[in-house]
Amino acid sequence: MTMATVSLGDIRAARDRIAGKVERTATVFSPILSERLGVPVHLKLEHRQTTGSFKLRGASNAVASLGAEEKARGVIAASTGNHGRALAHAAKLEGMRTVICMSRLVPQNKLDEIRRLGAEVRIVGNSQDDAQQEVERMVAQEGLVMLPPFDHPAIIAGQGTLGLEMIEQVPDAGLVLVQLSGGGLASGVAAAVKGVSPGTKVVGVSMARGAAMKASLDAGRPVLVEELPTLADSLGGGVGLDNRLTFAMCRDLLDDVVLLSEDEIAAGIRHAYAQEREIVEGAGAVGIAALLAGKVKAKGPVVVLLSGRNIDMNAHRRIVCDAAIGGCAA
Ligand SMILES: *Cc1c(COP(=O)(O)O)cnc(C)c1O
Fold first, then answer.
1. Mind listing the pLDDT tens digit for each residue in 266-298?
2. Which of 107, 124, 146 delimits the end of a domain?
């Protein structure tokens, strides 16, 4: 068994490397959620990051860590959207060739954006695994450098820079709520948070429909889970049966994992819009949703990550116009 992990030092080095290439996003106090929870609740507004998600942190760090010869070969990844978009942006700044492979489940808005950023897009199969096979074929045939969405030390370290900012912005945080899919985000954030504030709890949040990391943690090893359509489409996909880093880091660093129904996720999107005036995608809303559903208990201040905003606006309108907030009569 490998003991590879990502350290606080790696995350601090990543922060220096990506300074000036990503935004330091704001953390704001939420009076409404604080009143509901009975403890201060702060929202980390990372959905306002350039490219609309935190994925730019990991992608920028990974690209900046490449040598000249690797940069000349270009980069490739399989992505449900936000990693592809972030990688296309980061690689374009460096003038590098970028190829993004994705499954047919990816929403049109995400696909359009990646093409607009100048990346080559290849659509293959019905799952992340199919897209990944295409990546491996092109790495072998064309010599591109693979930068995967989560199971890579430079990606994890880049996402971890969020954890450093959270503790700087809310030094007495008792609990950090972070999205959990492949676990690059949760691994990096937990390593940073626990590194600088060992008493702070870090809890992962996933959708119940296809929560691969939760199933893997329960099984004690990476397992396959059927990929299903969900409002939190950015949380879709497996953890990889040959997972090298994120399974062990999530197992060792996360205090708990919470799962949410589709209705609970929709309520999170609605709350973000109607009460906080923020447009977030399903994945971005799961931290708020977990609080609204009463699925987490907190003793001290809570920091909730809003991880992305790349939602199809027609889908967003249908969700926020639901009768629960009185509809959207013309
Ligand atoms: C990728 C992504 C996640 C999950 O990150 P992992 O590192 O795969 O766990 C959460 N929210 C958004 C918006 C994402 O794009």
1. 999 999 999 999 999 999 999 999 999 999 999
2. 146
Three-class SS state of 209:
coil
Of the three residues 146, 171, 206, the one that is the final residue of a domain is 146
pTM: 0.94
Whether ligand 1 lies within 6 angstroms of the CB of 308 is answered as: yes
- Whether residues 163 and 305 share a domain: the answer is yes
Residues 250, 183: Cα–Cα separation, whole Å: 7
What order do you get walking across the sheet with 145-146 strand by strand?
120-123, 98-102, 75-78, 145-146
Q: Quick check: CB of 186 below 6 Å from ligand 1?
A: yes
Q: Whose CA is nearest to atom 13 of ligand 1?
A: 308
Ligand 1 atom 10: residue of nearest CA: 179
CB count within 10 Å of CB 140 equals 9
The first and second tokens of residue 31, run together, are: 């009076």
Query: Is residue 246 within 6 Å of ligand 1 at its C-beta?
Result: no
Q: Is residue 227 one of the residues assigned to a domain?
A: yes
Atom of ligand 1 nearest to the CA of 182: 8
Per-residue pLDDT tens over the stretch 94-137: 899 999 998 887 778 778 888 999 999 999 998 877 888 999 99
Domain that residue 105 falls in: 56-146
Site to substitute for ligand 1 among 234, 245, 265, most atoms within 8 A of C-beta:
234
Residue 3 lies in a domain: no
Residues 167 and 112 in one domain: no
